[in-house]
Design brief:
Largest sheet: 2 strands, antiparallel
Low-confidence stretches: 1-31, 44-88, 97-112, 387-392
Distance between the termini: 112 Å
Oligomer: single chain
Structural class: mainly alpha
Strand content: under 5%
Number of strands: 2
Length: 392
């Protein structure tokens, strides 16, 4: 039907007057009616059919761009073109509406993907935060339990110590071990005094050796500048240099003696005394839990009290094992300390006696032999001074 109307419109003639204006003929009305009928049909087709049928109609219809209307009149024949831009625009709009855009296909997928990724990220972050909170909570609970145990233990030990001070509490006493510990403490005090005096002797003797060295240099210089006293100054210079050399040898022996005593007092004895201190703390804790168990045993025997007694019995056994273990360690260390002390002091006292005797007797060979006997190597002069790198 559309094809017949368009073919009819194409064959109609429009009369033109002498001025070039179109005249009013009956055919004009039929042409306008045909155009109106065409637009009404297009609107009906667009409303009743889907977009795909509309495309088929547009493609199968005539090419409106090439549609021409032949007009004839009195002045001759002429050909005119009816504008079809409106029909072309309608066809393009129909094509655009029939093809969905790429954004309509991909935007939902992209939004779903972004939502999925966001949910995964939120889920992973929530899991990590929950794990961190659980770890923090576990550490806090563990620290709280540790502080609680420490506070309870400190309270019991303080109570036991005050009871012992005021004579209202009983304490576990090992008379033999306590006597050995007291002897060790007294020995340490005496050895510290020996160490202090030996260091003082070393400092004084070092100053004397330095004075003898300076005096020998002065005598040697005066022997060169005083020809009339050259021999006398020379003899004294050689004597002071010899005494200075022997004094440095004696200083090596005394320094070795001081170093050995220092190791014995501040390391070996101190280590044993640290073990004794741990033993005394264990003894105090043992007596505190023992007194606690005795108090609970003298109370009522209901279910709650029996539960507390069982817990106190377990703690008492733990403290008893700790006390016995440290007591055994103290006994062993005291035995080895006594043996080591005798061995070390025997060697060091012999060294000190031989070195002092050889020095003041003026026996240089015996003094050097004493150092070789105890494997003592003297440092060269100036070895005690720091190097230029250490001074930087």
């Amino acid at each position: 039907m559309t094809d017949s109307i368009m073919s009819k419109a194409a064959t109609m003639e429009i009369p033109i007057n002498s001025n070039g204006d179109t005249g009013t003929l009956p055919e004009d009305d039929s042409l306008e009616q045909a155009a109106k009928l065409h637009w009404s049909l297009d609107e009906k087709v667009g409303s009743s059919r889907d977009t795909r049928d509309l495309q088929q109609v547009m493609v199968s219809g005539p090419n409106l761009n090439e549609t021409s209307i032949v007009s004839g009149g009195y002045g001759g024949t002429a050909e005119g073109i009816i504008p079809t831009s409106s029909i072309k625009d309608l066809r393009m709009k129909a094509r655009r509406s029939s093809v969905p855009s790429s954004s309509s296909f991909f935007c939902p997928l992209a939004s779903q993907s972004n939502e999925y990724k966001g949910s995964n990220m939120h889920h992973s972050s929530s899991n990590s935060s929950m794990m961190a909170e659980e770890a923090t909570r576990g550490v806090a609970v563990e620290k709280l339990e540790t502080v609680k145990k420490w506070g309870l233990n400190t309270y019991k030990c303080t109570k036991q110590m005050i009871s012992e001070r005021f004579g209202r509490g009983s304490r576990t006493v090992d008379l033999e071990l306590e006597a050995q510990i007291e002897v060790l403490r007294d020995t340490k005090r005496k050895y510290e005094n020996v160490l202090r005096l030996a260091r003082a002797l070393t400092n004084h003797f070092y100053n004397m050796v330095q004075t003898q060295h300076a005096l020998g240099d002065t005598f040697a210089d005066l022997s060169q500048k005083s020809p009339e006293l050259r021999d006398e100054f020379g003899y004294n210079a050689e004597t002071q240099k010899l005494l200075c050399k022997n004094g440095e040898t004696l200083l090596g022996a005394v320094n070795f003696f001081v170093s050995s005593i220092n190791t014995l007092v501040n390391k070996t004895m101190e280590d044993t005394l640290m073990t004794i201190k741990m033993y005394e703390n264990a003894r105090l804790e043992f007596d505190a839990y023992r007194s606690d168990l005795e108090e609970l045993s003298m109370g009522p025997r209901d279910a709650a009290a029996m539960a507390r007694i069982d817990a106190a019995q377990q703690q008492y056994q733990v403290q008893k094992d700790k006390y016995e273990r440290l007591r055994s360690d103290v006994i062993i260390k005291l035995k080895f300390l006594e043996e080591n002390k005798v061995k070390v002091m025997h060697k060091q006292l012999l060294l000190f006696h031989n070195a002092i005797s050889a020095y003041f007797a003026g026996n240089q060979q015996q003094l050097e032999q004493t150092l070789k006997q105890f494997n003592i190597k003297l440092r060269p002069p100036g070895a005690d001074k720091p190097s230029w790198l250490e001074e930087q």
